[in-house]
Write the structure tokens for this entry.
Amino acid sequence: MKAIIGDDYGPPSGLRLRDVGTPEPAAGQVLVRVLAAGVHVGDCLVVRGAPFPVRFATGLRRPRYGVPGFDLAGRVEAVGEGVEGFRPGDEVFGTGDGTCAEYARTAQERLAPKPSGLTFEEAAAVPTSAATALRALREVGRLKAGQEVLINGASGGVGTFAVQIAASLGARVTGVCGPGNLEMVRSIGADHVIDYTREDFTQGARRYDLILDNVENRPLADCRRVLAPSGTLLLNSGTGARGIAMLIRLAKPLLLSPFTRQGLRRFVVSPKRRDLAALTELLDSGKVKPVIERTYPLAETPAALSHIEGGHARGKVVITIGQ
């Protein structure tokens, strides 16, 4: 099979399209013929092997496998022993390892039937970003109808899903984005939109019950100033710095949280079938729809990841494979 692969950590430009062996599904695994793969900033971190803790999962000195990609949509090619509910030919979406390839294998609990109303490209855009937004708002933040929520980074992959999910929950949504995305963010459900090049949301008069910060480009103290006294700040980035500075940024909210009425939280999401099922309900109802900026063929995966690293992707970026 053809796959995008890197032998060493480094920039996306070091990735190459190669022929590699097709994996075989083990017990409990499903082999998927990948027709589209959604990519996001997490793929860039894996390719670079930075920050360093990423390497504990991918290989300390060099990548163990070297094929980027977590999100996928495609057709079941084969199933391993003990797999129930999937058979060859089924259209599926979910997550796997090394999905920027013609085939990828994954555990059965990381897959679900593809929503019938979505293309493969649209379905591949969903799993990680939409599950992150859903879990953050509904489970971690416990967002309720009528509450004020601010999404910083509202035009990105997680942000576009978060705006729509928050609106579907009945919240009053403020989205923060660049000037070129104001109308798009408003069109997907934001009640109020802030152009970050003209206004600093942390200096406004409005107070928010929940802030989902996908950017973390403002000091923690400033974000807390516009958070309601018992509001919740959900931090979905934490990099934006390196070395000790990064560790401080990651740890500081967790250390402060026990001493304030405000909730300061970080969270990690690894989408499972229950997340995919909940997202399918929202997608089938029309309350949520993927926003895809661009698609790239498999051979241009390095360009796709470089575009994401530029920090201004509009919605999702998707790799198309063998359609």
Summary: The chain has a mean pLDDT of 92. The chain has ten helices and 15 strands. The first strand starts at residue 2 and ends at 5.
